[in-house]
Amino acid sequence: MLAKRIIPCLDIKNGRTVKGINFEGLRDAGDPVELARRYSDEGADELIFLDITATNEKRKTLVKLVRQISQHISIPFTVGGGIKSVDEIGDLLYAGADKVSLNSSIVANPKLITDAADRFGSQCVVAAIDARRTGYSWNVYTKAGTFDTGLDAIAWAKKTTEHGAGEILLTSMDKDGTKSGFDHELLRKIAATVSVPLIASGGAGTIQHCIEAVTLGHADAVLAASIFHFKEIEITDLKSAMHYAGIPVRLLENI
User: Full-prediction pTM beyond 0.85?
Assistant: First the structure.
């Protein structure tokens, strides 16, 4: 079994790391370059950078900040926010990103997934899905969680992989920032539908929550933000607990 990954997430607004609850009430969480360096040193497996206002502000992701962060880390780095073209993806990969996360743009134009995968490889293309429960199903939201597309999240996840996405970043909007645990039901349904790695996002509050995202939600990676930003949980402690729970992880001493 492949090692499960621990991935800190940097939500960026105005050049600063921020964190909110249910995509609202954002508060400052620190300098993104310093946080990125810290997570790389502490044994995070990857890092995700999301420029959360780029789409709504109709501007490109902050390439300069991407370049700065990439110079201070030694782990894979995914970048998302306001990316609308293959050329922009190329600019970000050239600036130091290893993958790009695409959300609003691929709902508007699913062919962008195929075009990006054809040029750079599926391993570089992460389909980001922000989902909110609607009765017995989940709808896909775009534009930083402000627009209900009406798309079914499970069907959309499958479609993104058919177009060439090599990974899915699934965020439960209902759970985001609540620290109440991940949406295991949604995770399981999507994990059973797709064959690409699935990153669980939204709800991490305890070490047990992260363990359950893997054991109950069948996720391949666990993403968290505030519990790491504010040092509520140390990455080394989380990995040790996952290891003792029988989950394969990359331990720091083995780097």
Answer: yes
